[in-house]
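[PROTEIN RECORD]
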Amino acid sequence: MKIKAVLLIVFGALASCQSPLPLMHFPDGQAPLNEIFSFEIELIDGPADSVGVDADMPSHGHGMITEPVVNKLDGTHYQVDGMMLHMPGYWEIYVDVMRDGDSERFMLPITLEAWQ
């Protein structure tokens, strides 16, 4: 499994790596705090066999209290439903992309403020 760290910028991500990073399209341009939400993932480098999503608050030692479901919309777009980042603070959103038996993990850092 390869792990890649990225910097989230509005609708996408930047990093110095060889694989193009998935774009994440959030409602209202950002992930909401303590609300169940959906968002879309766009794979820039073509279709995948499967895509998984999870999130974690590393400094707290826990993840989400929901289990998101990923549905394929078309060859490169996926709908993620059931996300909830239930606490303010630093989160890491993980996108796992499976292709031809290989898994790539992309990590997208996000910080949610209490007043969002």
Remarks:
- The chain has a mean pLDDT of 85.
- Residues 2-112 form a domain with the Immunoglobulin-like fold (CATH 2.60.40).
- The chain has one domain: 2-112.
